[in-house]
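Weekly sync, protein design subgroup
Attendees: M.S., D.O., the rotation student, P.L. (late)

Item 1: inverse folding check
M.S. brought a backbone from last month's batch and wanted to see whether the design step gives back something sensible before we order anything. D.O. pointed out we never logged the input encoding, so this time it goes straight into the notes. Structure tokens as presented (430 positions):
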């Protein structure tokens, strides 16, 4: 065949070329210095600006924006953009972890996972951000971080319009709207949006608290909790709101606060239509409609909507009052109570009603007062349909139906449902 006839000729040319190269070197000539030309990336993504060397890479990249994942796992139905990613994923189901760390023996399904893990033993972070100085263990992490400085957020939520720098962040965010929590704790039944959150939660049941404060010895299950705690020793609040000047210990807290100024409240109650800036606030609010208070005090039986409220309440039984007034020495179990008390020394009432001019020491009192002008009475008695502006008034009213009269006169034995009526009665004896 013609191809076979040409092959000896090609070999002859190749041998001649190799001989010429050897001759040039032995003749004392300097070998050519080969310089790599700058790689051209003529194919640009119209959505995020990423560039590629060939059209095929661009087409694969576009699948990310289109959210098309053509390769599906036959065992768990997880989908992937690339066939190679599916192959690597299948190793998880097979239980194959061919890449093992020589230092601690931990094994991984992929070599990249092992490489990422090895850095934890060295604490080396060779990739530095030229703009803010943050360091990273991986080049990919630096690339993702750089999107923050450029302001590019190519992944947008179709439901609330919130944008993200990474696809993974969008995927986690979308679950908020669906209320789907696929990862369940086998011990307490608590569910989580992410597998990583479940892993961290399991440390609580195991009693493992690997992160310890060097100043007071307190330990935590997560590093973020330790970082938040460390700020309490310094009183440092490095994150400042550019609009109102409020300062925060964490960047995340500042981000949540900024939603107040933008007016964005992406979390809406399906029962009453009230909206909130944070998912946690919505979760707490929903319990009002169900009257569910899952957290019970073991000492007095009082119930609470949130675990944090129970913790604060337990300080009363323990007699712990960590917040002390610098002016009169009075102590309180909660910082909010101290803040309310401090106003009594100044007689300052910074919150003014625009309709009647009444002034208030706290924003909470002001909000409750505004309900009077609006004619809103959100707290209704389940027995007689009487409505009240504040929850405290409803509680006092309920004593009438229950027949409980906690205020008793020591002189004549008369009992009363509210303290105000009791005080008026006491004056009769004086």
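Designed sequence read out in the meeting:
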């Amino acid at each position: 065949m013609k191809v076979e006839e040409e092959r000896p000729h090609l070999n002859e040319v190749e041998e001649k070329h190799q001989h010429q190269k050897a001759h040039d070197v032995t003749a004392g000539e300097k070998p050519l210095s080969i310089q790599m030309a700058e790689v051209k990336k003529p194919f640009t993504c119209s959505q995020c600006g990423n560039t590629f060397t060939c059209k095929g890479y661009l087409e694969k990249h576009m699948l990310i924006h289109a959210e098309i994942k053509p390769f599906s796992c036959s065992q768990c139905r997880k989908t992937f953009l690339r066939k190679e990613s599916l192959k690597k994923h299948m190793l998880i189901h097979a239980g194959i972890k061919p890449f093992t760390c020589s230092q601690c023996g931990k094994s991984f399904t992929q070599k990249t996972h092992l490489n990422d893990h090895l850095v934890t033993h060295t604490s080396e972070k060779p990739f530095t951000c030229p703009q803010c100085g943050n360091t990273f263990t991986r080049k990919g992490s630096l690339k993702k971080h750089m999107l923050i400085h450029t302001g590019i957020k190519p992944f947008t939520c179709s439901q609330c319009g919130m944008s993200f720098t990474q696809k993974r962040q969008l995927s986690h965010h979308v679950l908020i709207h669906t209320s789907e929590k696929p990862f369940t704790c086998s011990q307490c039944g608590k569910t989580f949006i992410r597998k990583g959150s479940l892993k961290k939660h399991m440390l609580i049941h195991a009693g493992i608290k690997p992160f310890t404060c060097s100043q007071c010895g307190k330990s935590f299950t997560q590093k973020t909790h330790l970082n938040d705690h460390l700020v309490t020793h310094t009183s440092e609040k490095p994150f400042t709101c550019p609009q109102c000047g409020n300062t925060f210990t964490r960047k995340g807290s500042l981000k949540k606060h900024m939603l107040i100024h933008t007016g964005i409240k992406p979390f809406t109650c399906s029962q009453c239509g009230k909206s909130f800036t944070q998912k946690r606030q919505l979760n707490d609010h929903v319990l009002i409609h169900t009257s569910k208070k899952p957290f019970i005090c073991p000492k007095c039986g009082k119930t609470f909507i949130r675990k944090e409220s129970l913790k604060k309440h337990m300080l009363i039984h323990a007699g712990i009052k960590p917040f002390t007034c610098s002016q009169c020495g009075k102590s309180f179990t909660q910082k909010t109570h101290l803040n309310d008390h401090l106003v009594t020394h100044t007689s300052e009432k910074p919150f003014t009603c625009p309709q009647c001019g009444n002034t208030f020491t706290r924003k909470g009192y002001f909000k409750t007062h505004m309900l009077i002008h609006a004619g809103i009475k959100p707290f209704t008695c389940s027995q007689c349909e009487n409505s009240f502006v504040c929850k405290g008034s409803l509680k006092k009213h309920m004593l009438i139906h229950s027949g409980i009269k906690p205020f008793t006169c020591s002189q004549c034995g008369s009992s009363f449902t509210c303290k105000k009526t009791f005080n008026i009665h006491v004056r009769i004896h004086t």
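Discussion: Residues 44-124 form a domain with the Double Stranded RNA Binding Domain fold (CATH 3.30.160.60). The chain has a mean pLDDT of 80.
Action: P.L. to compare against the previous round before Friday.
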